[in-house]
Predict the structure.
Amino acid sequence: MNEDNIIICRCEDVTLKDIRNLIQQGFTTIEEIKRLSRIGMGPCQGKTCGLLIAKEIAEITGISIEKIELQNIRPPYGGVTFEEIIAGDEVEK
Amino acid sequence: MRIEQHPILEFKKGEKIRFYFNGKEMIGFKNDTIASALYGLGIYKLSESKKQKRPRGIFCAVGHCSSCLMTVDGIPNVRTCITPLKEGMQIETQSQEVIKDA
Amino acid sequence: MKLKNKASVVVIGGGVVGNSVAYNLAKRGVKDIVLVERSFLASGATGRCGAGVRQQWGTRQNCLLARESMRVFENFKDTLNVDVDIELKQKGYLLLAYSDNELGLFKRNIEVQNSLDIPSKLVTPQEAKDIVPDLNIDKLVGGAFCPTDGHANPFKVTYGYSKAAVNLGVEINKFTEVKKIKTEKGKIIGVQTNRGFIETSKVVDAAGGWSQQIAKMVNVELPVYSERHEILVTESVKPILDPMLMSFSYNIYCQQTPDGSFIMGYGPENEPPGFNTHSSWQFLETMSKKATWLLPPLNKIRILRQWAGLYNISPDKQPIVSKIKDVENFYVACGFSGHGFMIAPAIGVLMADIITESEFTYDVILDIERYKRGEVISEPSVV
Amino acid sequence: MHNIEKVELIIVGGGPAGLSAALAAANYGVNVILVEEREFLGGQLVKQTHRFFGSEKEYAGTRGLKISNLLVEEIKENEHIKVLTSSRVLGIYKDKIVTILTNNKMMKYFPKALILATGASEKFLAFENNDLPGVFGAGAVQTLMNLYGVSPAKKILMVGSGNIGLIVSYQLLQAGVEVACVIEAAPKIGGYSVHASKLRRMGVPILTSHTIKKAVGKDKVEGAIICQLDSSWREIIDTDQFIKCDAICLSVGLTPLTDLLRQTNIKTVYISELGGYIPIRDENMETNIKNLFVAGDVSGIEEATSAIIEGQIAGLNVAKRINKNVKYQLEIEKQIMEAKEELELLRAGPVGEKVRKGLKKIGLNNSKNYDERMSNEEYDISFLMRTGIPSNDNLKMKLPQSEEIFNKGPIAISECFQKFPCDPCVKGCPFDAISEEGNINNLPYVDFEKCTGCAICVSKCPGLAMFVVQKNYTDSTSLVTLPYEFLPKPMKDQTVLVLNREGTEICEGIVKRVIDGKIQDKTTVVTVEVPKEYFLETRNIKVK
């Protein structure tokens, strides 16, 4: 299959080829691949691409998938606008 | 394309909702989300991917994958698959110009 | 991948400073350089900072270091001879003054900056509005603007330096944590890591927020402490903010990156010193009020993620780039107080001068003894 | 300035696990805030038009969406439960504050306990053009069809033959969508055999050891290229095949949605049998962080029934901690024990092996040995699990051994050959003619002496695997009663086409009886008269 035409990260438009290149260059953690290719930085924060990349790393490096960690998840889950935050703080108890 | 009759479920189409897609007037139904209304009208491409401009449409329909992002009433990146359709909504395909300068 | 067990110098810390030092040393012909990083490269402050690149400083030497670093950023590929796009965006920094004496300070700084060919200038509130149409110029007294300041991708810069260093023979070891620095009669004999012992006589401490912990291994007390600074990133939207917006009095920095997302933060009040990098909801609340007052269109924009990193604060908020008298061949590059990324290229050159005992390329005084000599030049322009 | 609301229990997620956790805790006086991101409660349940498996005690035999309505009704009546729909938990912070986005405001809460029931998200698959519009997750197809009445396609390719892949394929047929075929990368079907048989008798092929290589189309799916895999799942060259379709449905597995969970410093571990990275927790569903519980698919992928029970266990444990009234403590403890037993029973049998193996890896190997309480008859269903069609040996097992049983009149035949926990046929038979020898995981056997051929079981069976046969209706014809859930419905005396287990037309038949009452709940029971030689092959009809 043509790796250029296989999308791993929908939010940031990253292909399987990009991911495999990075792994082969020695970036074998999702945190590194994220910083260099922006996977996991989009609105879905790694929900669709996380597992796929973990499997690629396991396949190419031989590390068992149990040892591969997904990226860190930080608040706010699903996003929140500045306005919504301010509105919440101004509600009088 | 709407399911007219179903052996298990009844789809009592709620009242009509008028909305605009890239400026064109369209009709959806009460209880529709933006994405389900568009899909029912045969509109599958909801946006373009960031870099390669590949067509993007509904994938998960439960608000997880962010593949259905559109600009709604001027607000970008709205997950249309979980946003209820409302009267008069302005929906636009969203193709983000990525600023690549210097 | 086996760890080299003998090195001429071991650099501790895989951030942008550590990699810049390793590269610049190798460029001077120093052989057998080994860099050790306990996690992945740029996993510390480098990878968590706002990554602005600014030349508008108050002290002459900071301006000098920033200008020299900007030259590297401007032709990164040729200087380091690596094919890495650092996504440099040069749409300037717009500093905002909310009092006459703050504007006066900008004026004096601009004189220093212009004397070093840094093209900064004063701007009136209206000129500021022309640069940032959505800016709320209420209460704004004036500002300073330098068109060549901007933003670079911190990960790409770090990986660029590390690639260049490897090309010159440096060994980069990720996931390698320093446990002990062995000394005999006050002389360094080697570094003990979780992956083995490296025999060396020279060590460079570029461990960012943990520099003081590394220094303790050779019982040196560095006059620095670390504190948490929080930061957030929004979703990507169409560009509405070209320059980095920054104000010391209003205490904020805010930048729209090439990708279209905003990165912003502010200097926390009464943050206890320590190594805590947890996020807080209080930060979201304060940041929201500050940011939307300054740039109203932010109201409708979604915050995607918040995180935190460590500032390594020195007494005068100036870097400490120096050898340590009591421990031969132990060098430190720390205390960047939140602006290490933007001057890392020059810091690497300076540290290479110190280690190879050559004549300083830049006329700067950043040695640790300055505190004892009382030559403390405090740098006002820090958020 | 910081208005923080102190509360007792926050439950995140309004699906089966969250609903049952809320009810379990609120029934013992705990004040619950149930937070649901969508504008409706029920989670994925509301899209499940099929009848559920499992024990009748846990709603088995009822359609998914009805179970949801039952639970949601109870929630509405319980004044201890405050429901926040269209609300999303944003953050769980170190200082135990939980921020929730509700009616456009970020509100702050300080809960004593937290139950995360955030369910699962669908796995994505790497093949060419996998981001083309028209490539859907199975949940998306169900959402469009069953929630919004929008048809996802005219002709669709189903990738994956787990229960979801099989059930969604069947629901697609009901919605009038043609299913080109179901492809499965493994050499055998993943889901229950009864679901596969339902598809095969509608003429839908199931291709094992096949995978998708490419979606074809410019702005929308117009077709797909599939290929064959060898035993180690590698592509066999030149086995590419083009499938004409205008949508591709991926149901290649769910993975726990642990995003919120991983904001805390909870320990997670990758367990392939449970769908991916799961939180470490004890048998009371509590994680390594005190008072932080998990329930449902987020704690490991299983089905809705186990999610409901896990929700009960988590809810009851919170009640035990918050409601200090000694009077209740014993009662709660008893209920927790019962729920754990129920769960263990549900996970018994060969089908539960994968889940048990996964749970064992995090130290939850349930002490009781399942296998000895089950009948240990061994029989080979490998053909069935590869094709969805029972072998002749399988069929012989369920048929009467002597000829004259057929002279007695109509008798029920169960084509359920796989041991999994399910008992609606046993519990539903008014004449106690069907038994599983006391263990829900055993195969059901019909006692032909007691069976009157009343066909109640035909509409009760969640797998539509019960049929009634009257071989000697006349000397040349037989009557076969079968379940039918499609449109148009047949009418009495109408001539229809008769299909066998592979969906091929074998003869014509005359409809003698159509039962479509309330008890049938939309599984129409059709009795058709067929030539006697086809009395054992008649499994479906096509109304002209």
The two ends of chain A are 59 Å apart (CA to CA). Chain A has one domain: 3-86. Strands of chain A lie at 7-9, 14-15, 80-81. Chain A touches chain C at residues 27, 29, 31-32, 35-36, 38, 41, 43, 45, 74-76, 79-83, 85-86, 88-89 (CB under 8 Å).
